[in-house]
Model the fold of this input.
Amino acid sequence: MLKKLGLLALVLVAVLALALSSSAADEPVKLGLGQVTSIAKSQGLSVDASGKTVVPMAQVDSVIAAVAFDKDGRIVHVNIDTAQTKVNFNRDWTIATDITVPGKTKKELGDDYGMRKASSIGKEWYEQIAEFEKWLIGKTVEEVKALKVKARDDAHPAVPDVPELTSLVTITVQDYIAAVEKAWENAVPVKAGGKTLGLGHDISLASSKTAAPQVDTTLAAALFDAEGKVVGVVLDVIQSKIPYDTQTNQPAVDIQAPVLSKKELKDNYGMRKASGIGKEWYEQAAELEKWMIGKTAAEIQSMKVKQRDANHVAVPDVPELTSLVTITVEKYLAALGEAYSTAK
Done:
């Protein structure tokens, strides 16, 4: 009897050890936020083959990936989205698009994005990206990059060509893979206990001017523990400017060049000289991220702020940040709140 009890105890210890080991392996230790932004689909005034005039139109496509990795570099949580923002002009080059309306991502649009009818598998974009996200779980970035793909046409050069995905994902995935890779390259350590991952954003056209559309995409990737407290957060902003030459009726920038985020630009963003505290944007964002750790979304959004001027309506007014953060933070707080509300 004693031998049986001893054997049972050993089995229970082994099972518990295995469970703890498995749990530890799935524990997120790093959080990354990657983005791939293109303005290549922007167009100037032209005439098509039928002689019809094609009017100028600016377009910004931002692929965004929030990814949590375990100690072995395997993906534990992932949230991918795309913001496809178009800006139309009037004849006098003023902006025809309502710049007061926030932009929406493909996930936010849901069925309104309108892919289902054109899809050979009858699936909307958000449904296909959900299947791709499932496939990513448990894989390293190198394994993700090794995904076998095929070209379906010029607009779809990298469609998954593996049995698990062929009937579920017919969208081209090269930019999603690139964004996940960037997330890994930019990943930062997080506190223990991360249970859910959220991706929040704010897409604004409000800075657009005549012949100069601008899309500002504020991002927040955040990991939350079981109590809803932040254990890791990464903030960033993609500032996409597409000025037009009204004499040539063409974009005045290289539309093939990639658009870098403020964190990617680092010192080249150029805030340090204009900063009252001599700190660049990425340095101030890092201090704000530190302040968010250990707080709930509600506590973060209730931060005390003050208006410095018309362009800085919500500057932190708490002792821990007054000498470290002088940027206006309302959109970062809102993006963090959205990350919490959509976390899974």
